[in-house]
């Protein structure tokens, strides 16, 4: 039998290996910018055209290369960063594997110009698909200029998988942001299609943060620093009030290298515990410095994931540093020992199954009478208070209301019976019965069947009553038993179908704002906004570009409550960016789901009136798929009578 294993041709092996390092134009940007930083440059310029598909060019004033080094830099596994195995454990440079330029040259047309400071002329190299087309001396400034043209020109399948220009530009902005933030001592500039996007002079880290992320952070930065023999943590965190729905402005750098770590992010969130509004994320730019021997950065080709030798210690120090900064800047809550604080009494543990959970001196009849006296209204002027007529209690004080509410919460009952509104003995008697369910004033004879227990007074129509529980769920009686509806999930399903229809008709109704409002985004969020602007217009949003990374909002969807347009759009962009599921969705479907989810969660824990509960139930069952949200979560649970009976059967 003939031999079948053969060595791959060098050009094919290079193209396969390039797939690990060069995934999109942003990968090229990352590698070239990091090489410029390693070359000790003080000025770096990034030029992109057609979101990097046509051109990615990085120009720096670094050390430059000799003609031999320029040629060797394009060979695989050729590097100036390491020499021995021991060097892997003391890496301080951003690059070290010698794969980046070789991988880029394998899938693009590359033009390399470089010159050392002590040389009179530089070197020009032209490469196509790993093949050196020409090398010659050339007059050029000190430093290196690398132009990467027509990325994936020789791998059309890879080029076809690239996203739209808006998506690819967003990834390029991310990589530019990471390198520029970690090196504030270097001047950076970015040009897109001959338009200047960023011009960042060298300066302090705080200045770089404001220049990159916007003036909104100017008054929101709090310095964070903790130095220990094992690790040092330095940087800035945001004040709690600057927290946003988007989690994009969170950056960790280890030995000046950008990393992603859910573990360390949890450490920061633990330090902010109790200070942030629900579903918001704090801002931070934190630099960790530790011995290179204590980390392993050679885990992933992109080098954004690392392993710590002692991750628990790193977690504890990061959390302590952030917590200390919050305390120093008076952003953490403090105890006021001089104030008049009323602490709730500690309730004793239940001693035995037969013990009274409310205490030995608990008397339901006395409690109901006390509650009625505290809550009943005052008699009207001129009414009789003596003789055989029943005297009506005084109107409740605020303290009495609070005590009554606290009692019901101690029983685990979150819905407190409404206080009587009419000054009549019948109303008081009705309230006494509601507040004293353990006492039956008129027992039913044994031979008679017990009547159906009435539900609370909230009604959704004749013969059908809806009850809201914990401002989160709706209980709806049905013929076969009981239905429990998650009001947030139900609202998400309703909104999704509504917006999906509007998007299909491309005629979403809009409410015009009295005055246009300007909203400024980060460059990354603005790139996403431009990407989905057509779909947003179909949903009812009306806005126009109004300067760099800024829009003027003129209208919002008609059924969206008047709110902060910035918060609404930022939350929508964040959900659009982070949406993940078992299937790939097109952009418009993804946007509709994100908008429905965003608006539905904004109404979480909302108290609904009778009319609102009725409308919610009716609109849910008018949906084509009322039982599930678009991503498959249940909106309702049906419990039949026999299931309810099983719950109360004797075990």
From TrEMBL:
Occurrences of domain MutL C-terminal dimerisation (ranges): 465-607
Family, according to the entry, reads as follows: Belongs to the DNA mismatch repair MutL/HexB family.
Gene behind the chain: mutL
What species is given as this protein's source? Hymenobacter cellulosivorans
The yes or no answer to whether the keyword DNA repair is present is yes
So what does this one do?
A: This protein is involved in the repair of mismatches in DNA. It is required for dam-dependent methyl-directed DNA mismatch repair. May act as a 'molecular matchmaker', a protein that promotes the formation of a stable complex between two or more DNA-binding proteins in an ATP-dependent manner without itself being part of a final effector complex.
Query: Ranges of Low complexity compositional bias?
Result: 369-378
Which SMART domains does the record associate with it? DNA_mis_repair, MutL_C
Xref: HAMAP family: DNA_mis_repair
Gene Ontology MF terms in the entry: endonuclease activity
Q: What is this protein called?
A: DNA mismatch repair protein MutL
* Keyword rRNA-binding appears in the UniProt entry: no
Q: State the residue spans of region: Disordered.
A: 369-399
Q: Which Pfam families match?
A: DNA_mis_repair, HATPase_c_3, MutL_C
Which of UniProt's keywords are assigned here? Answer: DNA damage, DNA repair, Endonuclease, Hydrolase, Nuclease
The superkingdom listed in its UniProt entry is Bacteria
DNA mismatch repair protein S5 domain sequence ranges:
209-327
């Amino acid at each position: 039998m003939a031999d079948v294993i053969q060595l791959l041709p060098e050009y094919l092996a290079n193209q396969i290996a390039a797939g690990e390092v060069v995934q999109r134009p942003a990968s090229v940007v990352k590698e070239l910018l990091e090489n410029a930083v390693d070359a000790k440059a003080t000025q770096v310029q990034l030029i992109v055209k057609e979101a990097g598909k046509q051109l990615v060019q990085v120009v720096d004033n670094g050390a430059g290369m000799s003609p031999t080094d320029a040629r060797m830099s394009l060979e695989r596994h050729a590097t100036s960063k390491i020499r021995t195995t021991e060097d892997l454990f003391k890496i301080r440079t951003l690059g070290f594997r010698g794969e980046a330029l070789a991988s880029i040259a394998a899938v693009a047309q590359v033009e390399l110009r470089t010159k050392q400071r002590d040389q009179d002329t530089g070197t020009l190299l032209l490469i196509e698909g790993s093949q050196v087309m020409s090398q010659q001396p050339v007059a050029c400034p000190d430093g290196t200029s690398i132009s990467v043209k027509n990325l994936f020109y020789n791998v059309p399948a890879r080029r076809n998988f690239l996203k739209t220009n808006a998506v690819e530009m967003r990834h390029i902005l991310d990589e530019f942001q990471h390198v520029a933030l970690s090196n504030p001592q270097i001047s950076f500039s970015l040009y897109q299609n001959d338009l200047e996007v960023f011009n960042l002079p060298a300066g302090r880290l705080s200045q770089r943060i404001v220049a990159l992320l916007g003036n909104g952070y100017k008054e929101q930065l709090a310095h964070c620093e903790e130095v220990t023999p094992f690790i040092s943590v330095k940087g800035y965190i945001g004040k709690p009030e600057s927290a946003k729905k988007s989690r994009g402005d969170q950056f960790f750098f280890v030995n000046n290298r950008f990393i992603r770590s859910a573990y360390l992010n949890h450490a920061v969130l633990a330090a902010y515990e109790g200070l942030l509004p629900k579903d918001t994320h704090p801002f931070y730019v934190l630099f960790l410095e530790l011995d290179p021997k204590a980390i392993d950065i050679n885990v992933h080709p992109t080098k954004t994931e690392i392993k710590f030798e002692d991750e628990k210690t790193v977690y504890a120090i990061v959390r302590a540093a952030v917590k200390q900064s919050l305390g120093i800047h008076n952003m953490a809550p403090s105890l006021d020992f001089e104030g008049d604080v009323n602490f709730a009494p500690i309730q004793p543990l239940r001693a035995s199954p037969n013990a009274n959970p409310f205490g030995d001196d608990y008397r339901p009849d006395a409690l109901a009478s006390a509650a009625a006296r505290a809550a009943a209204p005052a008699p009207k002027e001129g009414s009789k208070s003596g003789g055989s007529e029943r005297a009506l209690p005084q109107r409740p004080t605020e303290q009495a209301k609070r005590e009554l509410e606290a009692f019901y919460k101690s029983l685990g009952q979150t819905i407190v019976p409404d206080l009587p509104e009419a000054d009549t003995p019948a109303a008081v008697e009705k309230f006494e019965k509601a507040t004293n369910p353990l006492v039956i004033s008129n027992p039913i004879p044994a031979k008679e069947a017990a009547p159906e227990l009435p539900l609370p007074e909230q009604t959704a129509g004749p013969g059908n009553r809806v009850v809201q529980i914990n401002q989160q769920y709706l209980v709806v009686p049905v013929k076969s038993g009981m239905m429990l509806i998650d009001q947030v999930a139900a609202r998400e399903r309703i909104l999704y179908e509504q917006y999906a229809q509007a998007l299909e008709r491309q005629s979403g109704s809009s409410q015009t704002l009295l005055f246009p409002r300007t909203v400024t985004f980060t460059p990354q969020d603005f790139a996403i906004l431009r990407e989905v602007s057509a779909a947003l217009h179909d949903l009812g949003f009306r806005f126009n570009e109004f300067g760099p990374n800024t829009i003027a909002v003129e209208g919002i969807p008609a059924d969206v409550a008047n709110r902060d347009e910035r918060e609404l759009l930022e939350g929508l962009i964040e959900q659009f960016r982070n949406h993940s599921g078992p299937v790939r969705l097109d952009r418009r479907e993804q946007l509709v789901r994100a908008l429905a989810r965003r608006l539905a969660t904004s109404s979480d824990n909302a108290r609904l009136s009778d009319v609102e509960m009725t409308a919610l139930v009716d609109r849910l069952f008018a949906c084509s798929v009322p039982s599930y949200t678009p991503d498959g979560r249940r909106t309702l649970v049906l419990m039949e009578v026999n299931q309810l009976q099983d719950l109360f059967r004797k075990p």
